[in-house]
Amino acid sequence: MNQSVKLAIFKPDGLGDFVLALSGIRLLVERFGPENTAIVVTRTVEPLAKSECPGCRIIAIPYTPSGLRRNLLSLWRARQALRSFEPGVVVSMRHQRDRFYQLLFSAMRWQRCYVIENLLRKWLPPSYFWLENRSFQRTGTNVIDFPIDAPEGLCLELEAHRRMVSSVIGEDVSVDAIKPTLSACVTSEPILLVSPLGSIPEKTYPFPKLAEAIAQIPRIHELLVVLCGSRRQATALESLRRQLNQVGISHAEIRCSDTVVEFVRFVGTAQAVITVDTAAAHIATSLDKPTAVIFGGVYYGLYGPWSRSSRQQWVLPPLETEQRALHPSAGNEVGCIAPSEIASALRRALAVSSGPAAGSL
Which pLDDT value is given to residue 357? Predict the structure, then answer.
């Protein structure tokens, strides 16, 4: 990479995290120019980054949740790539959750750097952050405090992005401007898209109850029910399809997308979406689709709830005030949600009639 890069955005994350950051990334690219911008993402997200940020230099690095020792060669190669240039400004829109990404980020050089306070500091000992602390102590580093509350319609992560981008560009970014959007074409075909599997077990709603919820949707037999996930989730999706058969829904099919761009485009065609707290929730919301998000309360407030309009209905279990916290053990009661609440939430979402994504059941 040549030395003309003025801005480097560090966002090597999963699909949902990247989608949440997308409007903030676009605002930064608009200010610095795509020809002057490099964006660091994971290989999984790379096709979507190229589609949504045309003209930018996309640097794809491994997504390695399996640990540091198994990925030393990948780490060395990625560090070499990040040390090959020195942008004027580096913006980290990712919390450095493990050593791999801390070591990656520390390899970058900058004149000015903007980072968001690491939430792990609430739970891990100070010694865990010695490498991050060294990076933060470098000249030109600005640490943005993580917010403790957010305006209506935003989650804390989006509010953190709003404050981060405002600090970088020197002007206040509005709430609406930071809400993610995607460029996928939005239509409304007779499809109910179901994304039932969370990244951790606590996010996944029990399949028998989910089948019952889908069966309670009025005129459900007029829709093709499509169960979505990755190829490694195909066996679990087949289990849900059997549950649907047991409640009289035989018109369900499984679709495993080959790329994230294909998945985003398919979400854009659905009339309605039912999803747990996973990437599909952020994609459907970014496209302003009628959506029922089944949310067990894990990391309540951090990545959700958020919405573009009343078409997005988040369904939560009863949570005491003290449970509404960022700690991962908060909530974890997704199974307490009644199937009827999910069906009712989707009906409310579909009742909003304005715009191309609207429908009615």
Answer: 47
Helix (H) or strand (E) holding 344: helix 339-351
DSSP 353: -
Q: Which of 342, 15, 28 is nearest to 164 (CA)?
A: 28
b/e map of 25-53 (b: 16 or more CB within 10 Å)? bbbbbebbeeebbbbbbbebbbbbbbbbb
Q: How many CB atoms lie within 10 A of CB 232?
A: 9
Q: What is the pLDDT of residue 313?
A: 97
Structure token pair of residue 281: 């929730």
Tell how strand 224-229 and strand 312-315 pair up.
unpaired
Give 305-322 as a DSSP string: S--SSTTEEEE-----GG
**What pairing do the DSSP bridges indicate for beta strands 37-42 and 112-116?**
unpaired
How do residues 242-295 score in pLDDT, each as one tens digit?
A: 999 999 999 999 999 888 999 999 999 999 999 999 999 999 999 999 999 999
Positive or negative, the Cα torsion across 31, 302, 294, 259? positive
pTM: 0.91
Give the C-alpha separation, 353 to 108, whole Å. Answer: 48
Q: Using CA atoms, how far apart are residues 18 and 279, in angstroms rounded to an integer?
A: 9
What sign results for the dihedral spanned by CA atoms 207, 232, 271, 294? positive
Instruction: Find tokens 């490498």 and name the residue.
Output: 131
CA distances to 215, 296, 299, 305 from 284, rounded to whole Å, are 21, 18, 20, 13
Of the pLDDT bands very low, low, confident and very high (cuts 50, 70, 90), residue 322 is very low
Estimate to the nearest angstrom the gap between the alpha carbon of 59 and the chain centroid: 19
pLDDT in tens, 6-45: 999 999 989 999 999 999 999 999 999 999 999 999 999 9
Predicted confidence at residue 332, as pLDDT, reads 54
Distance in angstroms (rounded) separating the CA atoms of residues 170 and 278: 32
Say how many C-beta atoms besides its own lie within 10 A of residue 201's C-beta: 9
**What is the overall mean pLDDT for the chain?**
88
* Both tokens assigned to 242: 């059997």
Is-contact 156 146, C-beta < 8 A? Answer: yes
Token pair, residue 295, equals: 């949310």
DSSP sequence for 205-218: PPHHHHHHHHHTST
- Provide the token pair at 127: 């010694």
